[in-house]
Specification:
With 66 residues, the protein is mainly alpha-helical. The chain is built from two helices and no strands. The mean pLDDT is 90. Keywords: Membrane, Transmembrane, Transmembrane helix.
């Protein structure tokens, strides 16, 4: 059986998917808009991860330099 934090994560993801599905079907939100926002979210996430990797590399380089 999954531990409590894993169950909470799975429950949160399922609730998010259910909310998006409700928005699509109940409020007639176009699927095209949902996919557009998903792509924007993934691009923003990629930029944040790339910036974190860059700052980590710079900090690592600065530590090794001394």
């Amino acid at each position: 059986m999954a531990n409590k934090s894993r169950r909470s994560f799975i429950t949160s993801v399922l609730a998010c998917v259910a909310f998006v599905a409700a928005a699509i079907f109940s409020w007639d939100l176009p699927v095209k808009d949902v996919l557009y926002y998903l792509v924007l979210l993934l691009l923003a996430l990629f930029v944040i991860i790339a910036a974190a990797l860059g700052f980590g590399a710079v900090l690592s380089w600065l530590r090794r330099r001394k």
